[in-house]
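Notes from hallway chat w/ T.B., transcribed later so I don't forget. T.B. wanted the structure written out for a chain they're using in a teaching module, and asked if we could keep both sequence and structure tokens in one place. Agreed to drop them here.
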Amino acid sequence: MKDDLIRLISFTEDEYNKFKDVVEQTPFDTFIDEIVHIVKENSGTIEDAIEMAESEFERLAVI
């Protein structure tokens, strides 16, 4: 699921890292791993993981 999530989200690791450096977020790999873990733990789908990642990225972009 991790590889699929990275391939399907609308932002890149570089784009994430630009915001990460400003607001001291976790590294990209950790961010993705945490989302995958939460989604699997709750029997979610890849679509759930994409939505979660996109929502969190949008939140970062607003800060």
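Follow-up for T.B.: The chain has four helices and no strands. Might be a good example for the class.
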